[in-house]
Every structure is written in structure tokens, then in C-alpha cells.
Design brief:
By secondary structure, the chain is an alpha/beta fold. Helices cover 30% and strands 18% of the residues. The strands form 3 sheets. The chain has a 10-stranded mixed β-sheet with strand order 7-1-2-6-3-5-4-8-9-10, with helices on both faces. Strands 15-13-16-11-17 form a 5-stranded parallel β-sheet, with helices on both faces. Strands 12-14 form a two-stranded antiparallel ribbon.
Length: 342
């Protein structure tokens, strides 16, 4: 059912009162609070169990609002905003006094973007201010891409959930730091790639695989060693490790099977395997062949991992996609969500 005009008024009123409102973006659902309200932003960290050293992304309605809620908006930011906003690109820029220190983990920079989702934009216009919003899930867990995911994850910790259907991109935004010299730095890969950005602003540094400990203030969300992770033990493997995977799963009759909706009583000790190409897996394990293009894979990744996590499996095994630039964002999420194959 579409959100009614009064739903946005209710949501904006809750935000002004320091409450938490979950809302969809094109990437994942966010857990929003007034980015100028210290107590409200502190509630985000409490609800998620998120370390206070992990900064939040501030969402705004348009580029004019972004200029107002940054201390400087250089020409590179103007150019990128013109090409990619609204969209899944977050820019790290100097922080103004109006953005509370909780939203930036006490740092002098703010991560800011204009989301490309009608529900998010209507909420931002109605609220008429900046909304700090990390993913609407418990810290380190799988990001939510539907309103149901948010409800299942946070329950009464969130005061209102605006439903906008499934998120079309499915993984978090690209984060680009424009305060580093001599070149901007890609802090988190996303669906907007370095290849998309460099023709506009020139060379960019890439901190691929960077890990920031919980005691250290991170320059961007999503840099923890454990992130986007299911509760089921999850392991990654490359195609050349497939024989090892089969030995771990055990000998048995080989059978091509679709992954089924299951309950713990159904599955017992069986594992689920996510593959990029068709292959046989020994019974009683389940296998799902994933999309072979990065955008389609990203769109389904979190929903499938969440469904598998709820399926009562003893373990989850995920084949890594190719180590090529177009798969960089997906590989980043999988490397942080899984452990190496034992």
C-alpha cells in the first residue's frame, strides 16, 4: 500500500521529536534520525548496537541542501552531484557546526548524499532537514532491502517504518572522500565505480579491503572486518577451491536442486551453497545459482543471504565472483561477511 501524505507528516514529526524512522533508499533501508540532534543520533547507535566510532551517512533532499549542511562544497562535488545525484554516491566533505558530532563519529568531515528513491526524497522534503541514516539493521548484520527485513531486525527499536518495496540497487552507496590530497579516495565501493568517477574528476586512490577496528574512528561506514554478515557461519571460496568444498560437504549422490524455503526442522545439518555457475552439490545440501552480472547479483544478494540465514542451515558457502573492477563492490561485501573456506 503506498504511503499517504499524512504518513510523511507523521514521520517528519517523529524525526523532529528525536525519534527514529526507517525508510527505503535505492540502496538499502536506512534508520533515520535528525542529523542536527545529538540525542536522536545517539539513539541510532543504541538501536543498532553500533560502535560510536562508526560514522553515519547524512541524507539530504537536493544539492542545495547538501551545500547548506557542509562547510565547503568544492567544484568536484558540484560536478559529481550534477552527474550522480540523486543516486548511490556519498561524498565526504568538511563538516559544518550544524551537523552533530555523533553523526560524524567526532570527526571534522561529514558523509552526505541525495538518495534516489521517491519515498526517501518525499520524507526529506517534508522534514526539510538532514537525516542521518545507516542501514536499518543490527550492527555487522545483513543490510535490509525490504520493510519486512527492518521489522524483523529492529522491531520496537524503530518508531516508524515507511514501506517503499524492495530496494532496486541492493547494496550500500559508493563513498568518495573529497577531503584527501592530492587525490580523492574511494573509501567504500558501490554501484558507481571508479571508472564512472575518474572521467569527471581525474585520478582516485582506492583503499581496497581496508579494515578499521572498533576503537578507531572510521572515515566511512562499512570498513569493519565483520560486516553485512549472517548469523549462520558463512564461508567464501573461489572456483579453484570447489574440490575442497565438495570434500567438506561430504560424499553422496550428486543432485541439482533449487534452494527451497526451509525451517530449522527441515534442514538440520544441511548447508546452502551460492554458486555463480551451474554445478552439482551432494544431497542433502541446497544450491542456488546466482546472477552472473554484478548489478543483478547485488540486487539479490542481501535478500538471499537473509533468507538462507533463516532457513536453518548449518553453514553457508558462497562462491566469490571474479576479481575484476566491475565486481569490486560485491566482493567487498562478501569478503567482510564471510570467512575463508576451512
Amino acid at each position: 500500500m503506498p504511503n499517504r501524505p499524512q504518513d510523511y507528516q507523521t514521520a517528519a514529526g517523529l524525526l523532529r521529536a528525536g525519534k527514529l524512522v526507517a525508510f527505503p533508499t535505492e540502496t538499502v533501508y536506512g534508520l533515520g534520525a535528525d542529523a542536527t540532534n545529538s540525542a536522536a543520533c545517539a539513539r541510532i547507535f543504541e538501536a543498532k548496537g553500533r560502535p560510536s566510532t562508526n560514522p553515519l551517512i547524512v541524507h539530504v533532499a537536493d544539492t542545495a541542501m547538501a551545500r547548506h549542511y557542509t562547510a565547503a562544497f568544492p567544484s568536484a562535488a558540484e560536478l559529481l552531484a550534477e552527474h550522480f545525484w540523486p543516486g548511490p554516491l556519498t561524498l565526504v566533505l568538511p563538516k559544518p557546526p550544524s551537523i552533530c558530532r555523533e553523526a560524524t563519529a567526532g570527526q571534522q568531515t561529514v558523509a552526505i548524499r541525495v538518495p534516489d528513491h521517491p519515498v526517501a526524497l518525499q520524507l526529506l522534503r517534508t522534514f526539510a532537514g538532514p537525516i542521518a541514516a545507516p542501514s536499518a539493521n543490527r550492527s555487522t548484520r545483513v543490510s535490509p532491502t525490504t520493510a519486512e527485513h527492518v521489522h524483523d531486525e529492529l522491531g520496537e527499536r524503530v518508531d516508524l517504518i515507511l514501506d517503499g518495496g524492495a530496494c532496486p540497487v541492493g547494496i550500500e552507496s559508493t563513498v568518495l572522500d573529497l577531503t584527501t590530497f592530492p587525490k580523492p579516495t574511494l573509501l567504500r565501493p558501490g554501484s558507481i565505480s571508479i571508472a564512472d568517477l575518474q572521467p569527471l574528476i581525474g585520478p582516485i586512490d582506492l583503499l581496497e579491503g581496508r579494515v578499521v577496528g572498533s576503537a578507531e574512528a572510521a572515515p566511512s561506514p562499512g570498513l569493519g572486518a565483520l560486516h553485512y554478515a549472517p548469523t549462520t557461519p558463512a564461508y567464501r571460496f573461489s572456483r579453484d577451491e570447489y574440490p575442497r568444498l565438495l570434500r567438506r560437504l561430504g560424499d553422496g549422490p550428486f543432485e541439482e536442486r533449487p534452494m527451497a524455503t526451509a525451517t530449522p526442522a527441515d534442514k538440520g545439518a544441511a548447508a546452502t551453497v551460492l554458486l555463480l555457475s551451474k554445478a552439482s552439490i551432494p544431497a542433502p545440501h541446497d544450491v542456488l545459482t546466482m546472477p552472473v552480472t554484478p548489478d543483478a547479483y547485488a540486487r539479490l544478494l542481501y535478500a538471499i543471504v537473509r533468507a538462507a540465514d533463516e532457513g536453518g542451515y548449518s553453514a553457508m558457502y558462497i562462491e566469490l565472483p571474479p576479481s575484476t573492477p566491475d565486481w569490486l563492490a560485491v566482493r567487498d561485501r562478501l569478503m567482510r561477511a564471510t570467512r575463508p573456506l576451512p
